[in-house]
Amino acid sequence: MSSVTDFQTTQPEVRSKEFRKFGIRDKIGYLCGDLGNDFFFLIVSSFLMVYYTDIFHISAASVGILFLVARVWDAVADVTWGRFIDTRKASRHGKFKPWILRMSFPLVFFGILMFVQIPGMSNGFYLVYAFITYILWGTLYSTVNIPYGSMASSITSDPVERTTLSTFRTMGGVIAGLLVNVLGPLILFVDNKADANHFMMGAIVFGILSLSSYIACYKMSTERLIASDSQENKTNFKLTLKGLLKNKPLIAMLIVSLGSMMLTMLSGAVNVYLYKDYFGSASLLSVVGLIQISAMIIAIPMAKPLVAKFGKKEVAAVGMLLAAIVYLSLAFIPDLTAIQFIAISTIGTFGVGFFNLVVWAFVTDVIDYHEFLTGLREDGTVYAVYSFARKLGQAIAGGIGGFAIAVIGYNSVNTVQTEETLHGLYRLSTLVPGLVYLIILALLVFVYPLNKKRTLQLSADLVSKRNEGK
Questions:
Q1: DSSP string, 234-290
Q2: pLDDT tens digits along 252-286
Q3: 16 contacts: CB under 8 Å, gap ≥ 6
Q4: Measured at the alpha carbon of residue 114, what is the angle toward residues 146 and 290, in degrees to the nearest 5?
Q5: Is the Cβ–Cβ distance between 117 and 55 less than 8 Å?
Q6: Which domains does the chain have, with CATH numbers?
């Protein structure tokens, strides 16, 4: 990999004190961070829309506007907070993880507050209440998630160990998904209907689990690579911006993440209606959660050896190909039973699993590439820009999700939806995912440049440049 000559840089100094060796404690600690994130994130992405439409009686279109506004604001908050983190000096506990501990308490509090129903209030009150609590929760989520995501590149510099961290992060999401998607519908719904008291109970239970996980992440993770004081004080926004614009791997991952997160949010919201109304049983969501999480668990031990042999980009691309084939096939297979649909879609989930297992290692590679271009180690800023794309995807999905549900004619007052609405739900759950997976596949193959060979070369080039700067 050739050097970039149009940047005049100095190499960043990195303090690396004598810490215990990277090991299972770091992996479990990093797993706990995403466990904490996803206990609430999954409740929000999968069940908040149905809570708003069926309990607060907010129209699906209004919910779509709320999700759109909140996610755009969150995207801005991500970048602002990432830049703020990069300008802070590291404490003796590290630069990133202290913020996880500090901000996790208000984050969980406002998460629970979203699911509080106040008897006797008007629909207008609930709309305003939803806007305030949801936007506050999303802002606080940025203050925890940005330092958590940025922390991976400071725990270890080894590419293989970073892939392991990405795998364990995904395992955290898998465990949270197992608990939320399997237990959630059983807790939140009564007689196939969303129940306000049960939603509140679920929010408290998962809130406590979330807070406990954040504390475990703080206690068990160790930041080994910490920028020196001279690096921390040397912030050059013009140089940073120039590096971001020239970072082709970052730009590719921004587009991929935009599509991926847009689909995750859209599918999470639509699937509740698909099983509740199209297949006639919200409790089937527990079966779906269990089976599809099982598919992810099967993929976990396969990910590391496959990545070691073929590379992250290559493994992720094959996974997207499999997912695209499965969902496009489902779109054109008529009159499937719920069990048949679940069985076939699980194969697609297996393919998506490989992408999810390595995606966070892509991010650490992108952060390294930024350092290669600029000579600045700006983990928080680069991760925040990446998170910006994910939040923008959430914004688009939230808006499209609410409007799509409204356009196909969903009406929360109706006990049984019209035939046209039911077919619309099915198309949203199959054809749309298939097309998005196909687009992501094309981006990985033709746009993202860091294949296995170039990633290894990047790591070697960084070591060389750092040594030259000493």
A1: ---HHHHHHHHHH-HHHHHHHHHHHHHHHHHHHHHHHHHHIIIIISS-TTHHHHHHH
A2: 998 998 888 888 878 877 888 899 889 988 888 87
A3: 224, 225, 226
A4: 75
A5: yes
A6: 24-225+233-469 (1.20.1250.20)
